[in-house]
Amino acid sequence: MKKVNIGYIFSSPFLTKEEKIFLRVGKKKNVNLIMFNLAKKLTKEELEEKAKKCDIIFNNTAGYLALEIVKMMEGLGKKVLDTSKTFYYTEDKWMFFLKCREHGIPTPETILLSSNLNSAREELEDFAHWPVILKRVEGEQGEFVEKADNIPQAVKLIRDFWKKGNERLPIIAQELIKSLSYRVTVIDGEVVQTALKDGHGWKATSMYAKKVEKFEISRKLESLVKKITKVCRINICGMDFLKKGDDWFIIDINAEPSFEFFEDEREKIIEKVVDFLKRSA
């Protein structure tokens, strides 16, 4: 049987445990992994030569450089999972909110703030959800995400965001829902893992979580997950939910999800990823 050649985009200076597991699983499943290490020097010609050998390419790293490489690979006629178009609704928090509202997917109340501070003050006064969460429309691992209890705090945080970043990216204000964070990992429409993240505070993304344990997914949540997967046209992702009473609210979707919440399940999930890539090649 002919080996499937899978391109693998990552950005660590060296092979991490995850890359080693992917290589081991690939060997076991008669797959040849062609590594695109974005931390290394790669010329346009080298990227093109590697791409020629690939039946399909998997992007396993976040960031703008990875997105540019994904678009380059697509321009060369290569199939990439997930596609660059997916990022339009998953990585832009305002666009993701609008997409959810368009399709009746519950998400916290959110507004897009003006780049004029006086106008932003008025918008926050009208929004009247205190405390409020301020987020840049783009960011990773809880960066540029802060809580404000009042207008002066919010204005200070907006100024701080502008000082920290290289540019004044748009900022959204979002209703705070006090809840633990519920992560659902999905591969090809199938829920493959759940993780309840407790950060002992209002931030509970993986890097802030102090405790992580599994939770049983309800039919209501599973139905919501399937709807989001279909609407966003995403194949491999991690979805983060909040819970208020019996109601679920999605706050984020990650196109390059972590597979390391539970070490004893990590290789099994990576096997599912490789199986899906083989079927999709």
Describe the 3D structure.
There is one protein chain. This protein is of the alpha+beta class and 281 residues long. It contains nine helices and 13 strands. Helix 1 links the parallel strand 1 and strand 2. Helix 1 crosses helix 9 and helix 6 packs across helix 7. It is globular, with a radius of gyration of 20 Å. The mean pLDDT is 93.
Number of strands: 13
Strand content: 25-35%
How would you spell out the order of helices and strands? Answer: EHEHEHEHHEHEEHEEEEHEEH
Question: What would the principal axes of the Cα set say about the shape?
Answer: globular
Structural class: alpha+beta
Which strand order do you get reading across the main beta sheet? 11-10-9-12-13
Q: Let me know the largest β-sheet.
A: 5 strands, antiparallel
Catalogue the unreliable spans.
none
Radius of gyration: 20 Å
Terminus-to-terminus distance: 14 Å
- Count of helical regions: 9
